[in-house]
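Summarise this fold before class:
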Amino acid sequence: MQNLLKLFPFVRPYWKRSLAALVLLTSLVVLDLSIPRLIQRIIDQGIIARNQDVVIQTALIMIAISLVSTLIAVGNNILSVQVGESVARDLRDALFTRIQDFSYGNLDEQNTGQLMVRLTSDTTAVQRVAQISLRIGTRAPLLMVGSLILMINTSPSLALSMLPLLLVTSLIIVFFVLKMEPLFQSVQQKLDRLNTVLQENIAGARLVKAFVRADYEGERFESANEAYTGHSVHVMQIMSSMSPILSMFVNIGMVIVIWSGGMQSIRGQMTIGQIVAFTNYLLTTMGPLTMMTMLSNTWASGMASAKRVSEVLDTVPMVQDSASALTLPEMTPGRLVFEHVSFHYAGIDEPVLKDINLVIDPGQTVAFLGSTGAGKSTLVNLVPRFYDVTAGRITLDGIDIRDLKQDSLLAQVAVVPQETVLFSGTVRDNIRYGAPTAAEEQVLAASTAAQAHEFIQALSRGYDTHIEERGTNLSGGQKQRIAIARALLMDPKILILDDSTSSVDVETETRIQEALEKQLRRHTTLVVAQRISTVLKADKIVVIDDGHMAAEGTHAELMQTSPIYQEIYESQLGSGVRLEEAGVETGGRQ
């Protein structure tokens, strides 16, 4: 319940519609409660007294009340649906915005399947609670209270005999609701797992097919599906037992009323109309209880989902702007300094980077080379503050990047990641993703520099060619070149190329490097590479080994001083390759 109350601010903007829905609902309850009294009047003053006029008049009043009740119920339904749908929309927006604020560390802790369930299934469960609260969920308690009052007014003695029965029924409902919440939470967790397996399988469908693992993935999905189904069936079985139990109590109550009321009627203490009215009020009291049992699964599911939604909304981004964060000047030169930088991932004590000290001057191209898992990508991910350093600091033009506003820092940094991500839309839209207002000539220039213009022109509709989800209609090399063009179009002060030419051949890589050479002079460029041919012309090459800076210098210098670099060079290019043949200026770019 506490988690549902935490989401109340999402209902507050629609308080007028909510209030109107509750007013209509209260009016509907008053009209419903008047019906048993009118039936009592028909019996006692009409049928028994043989007064036809009373029967006709009362019947017409009941018909009019029914028509008005229908109109009120329709109005209440319309308003409650509007409020519920609006709350769900705002909740989805808030969740999406919160996820966008997550740093890489937060995203590491939550997988895609879990977040998708919270944005869809959990939000829908909260929406149902909002709608039901303005409809049946509020109507049922009002009917119960009103019926109890009128039962006491009709026959205090009979009403007192019913109180223990009503109390026991209420306690049973509370017991079931409290028991169901953790069960529904477990069901949602199983749904998380099911969605995670489904998302992984769809995203890796080509890999599954290539390795002939369809049967294995089918078994994995079936296992998750069976677990979800089993938990759901268990919950529904428990829920289905509530209705028969409550029906039994309703029938017991009817027997007590008819027997006790009949005895009082024989003694002349009650009229037949009073017995009928009291029976109707009893049904009106017990009916909402039965109704609430059917709704208790919605409430329990809503409380479990509200807790899961609140967990996402309450998640604090690991990387945040400080209260006194500065805006990075647009004319910043782009000088980066790593001062005793160390880093480890959350939950892992072993540092990935250890005491990194490095100076990168404006306009320099610095390449990071090392074995897989050495920490190269982690190091460059610290520059745009995808993660914050664990120890030490990184300064940009003398300012600690933790003292800068993230938006202003990221506006000066462009990243071409290892895994190219393209969005559904046109080629032009993807290139303009970081600079939506860029002119056409700027798009063409960036594409040309990235060696992408030629193949884009050969596509069916050129720059207007539609890119499918995840760029499935393009090759890996084509996607990488579009990603490079996207980064160049931003004209950043700092350009990060994280193994960005791994999917192109050496010849295309050489052409890209030649085309980028003039471009790179305008940027401070950080290059992460697996191939040594990618880094030969860099102003500075940094060899990373097991999180340490093992060596630093130009290609010529490292060939003289770094055994690790020599080993990498020999393994990839071989001792028979002359530097002149590779077209390398051994002193770095001047």
